[in-house]
Amino acid sequence: MEAKKRKSSDDEGEGAISYFPDDLLCHILSFLPTRAAASTSLLSKRWRRLFTLIPTSLDLDDSVFLPRDRPKECRRTSFMDFVNRLLALQSDSHIPTTKFSLRCHKGVDENLVEDWIHKALIRGATDLSLVLLFPSCGYTLPSCIFFYSQNLVKLKLGAGILGLVDSFKTHRPDFIFTKLKTLHLDSIDLGPFDPGFALLLSKCPVLEELIINNANWYQWDPTSVSTPSLKRLTFDCAHNLSKLKEGKLAQAYEYPPADISLTFYYGTWAPSTVSFDTPNLLYLDYSDFVANNYKLVKLDSLVEARLDLGLNGTHVYARDHLGYQIERDATNLIMGIHNVQTLHISSDTLEVISDFCKTVPVFHKLNHLSIETDDERGWQALPLLLINCPSLQSLVFHGLHHSLTDGCGNACNCIPPSSSSSSSCLTTCPVKVLKILDFGATCGEMSLVEHFLKKLPRLEQVVIVLHSDSSQGEDADIFEVSEALEMAPRASPYCKLEVVHY
Q1: Do 50 and 29 contact (CB within 8 A), yes or no?
Q2: I need a surface site. Which of 145, 263, 444, 473 has the fewest CB within 10 A?
Q3: Ranges in the chain, pLDDT < 50
Q4: If we measure between CA atoms, which residue out of 160, 117, 115 comes closest to residue 137?
């Protein structure tokens, strides 16, 4: 009698969710992480069957199996057992595996990894993500990737596994990614004169998006992205540049060698020659050390660009401490983006434009310009940029910081009026919307905003976003800043001012 009551009680507890139709339960399970969704198969035979009916997107990460108290002692056997059981559970399902994501570290059997990838591809995976953090530099991609290359639509490779060109020579050299639309390369090491990257791109005839994060180029020359079908390109090597900005490599420059080499030997090499042969590209996010030159730049269809280019550590030291003249030419790159409509540039890029561009094009289509600022970088290029943007409607500053130089006097009031020209690049600037982020409300910043209000003749809206630490009283800040700026003279009678907090 007790057993009957217990069973009845259990059924009553399960009842609410058990009455849901299979389609709804599968939809709910699809939102769970792979490990959690697989765990539901232990509940009953029905749940096991339901798990095999989920539109399969497997996201496998061995880091979730690491014990928090002793992470280094884990041999990852539990992760390997879990994946083996999971794939066996789904072997009888007729639902294809559409996405297979695998991230694993040292300690996971490389032969098992190849078997897992093979099974996922057999089951129809079109979206494959592999971040294989193995210590061996001799690891090459499994041959099954090339055998099933015609099925892939998205492919992500991480942790240096692209570095060996043998991956493409020894496994099916006639392969081609006929359907691949998105290629993501993360933390890839390309050795000196390694043709693997160019070879890979040549095998992707319909590629539309290319993402390259944390690439180390070494002495690879030339660096070229040549893909006519490409529409979006993210080329990001800024991890080394950010380390320089944060001072993490400062110790490396305390005792430089007497005969200093003008290549960066503490992170990644500065590229020598870079080319963009991408005539149909619509979006470019390019962050790296500025190259010696840009031999070929075809970006005629470009709509939006983000540029963060700067000197590497050795060049900075050679220029600032040894007095070397740094030879760089970014003219072709800046000329090549002349059709862009939206442009975001860093403070380093602004410096590159002033120091390493022989000329700046007229940006006839540019209507939105966003500039990051830095109190160690000057605004010498800003007057020329504003003069060459006849259609500019929106101007955004991320902070109002810059080093004080005679060259930026046209755009700001950092030099005495008596020594500056009466004309200003601002008086002919067509900007209607001015937005200033991370505003600290210092005397210098307040004075510069007043300068903008006084010079820009077509302003319709000024939005100032106060820095969260600009003062203690939020309401008082907004009121004080608004009251002070409302009193400032304006070139435009239609200008409205708005001051807000984050």
Answers
A1: yes
A2: 473
A3: 1-14, 73, 163-166, 170, 239-268, 418-421, 470-473, 475-476
A4: 160
Q: Cβ contacts of residue 11 below 8 Å, gap of 6+?
A: none
Contact 102, 130 (CB under 8 A): yes
| Pairwise CA distance, residues 119 & 115, whole Å | 6
Beta-strand pair 154-158/127-133: parallel
- The span from the CA of 275 to the CA of 360, in Å, is 19
Model confidence, pTM: 0.82
Contact call for residues 274 and 226 (beta carbons, < 8 A): no
How many residues appear in the chain?
502
Residue-level pLDDT at 106: 77
Question: Tens of pLDDT along 394-443?
Answer: 999 999 988 877 666 678 877 655 444 456 789 999 999 999 999 988 88
Token look-up 């014990």 returns 67
First to last CA, the chain: 64
What is the rounded distance in angstroms from the CA atom of residue 87 to the CA atom of residue 389? Answer: 57
CA proximity to 52, closest of 25, 16, 18: 25
Q: Which stretches of 149-277 are DSSP H helices?
A: 166-169, 196-202, 238-245
Q: Hey, what are 363's tokens?
A: 């940006």
The DSSP call for residue 298 is: E
**Residue reference for tokens 């290319």:** 210
Strand arrangement of the beta sheet that strand 297-298 belongs to: 223-226, 274-277, 297-298
Place of tokens 């390019």: 286
Check if the beta carbon of residue 148 is closer than 8 Å to that of residue 121.
Answer: yes
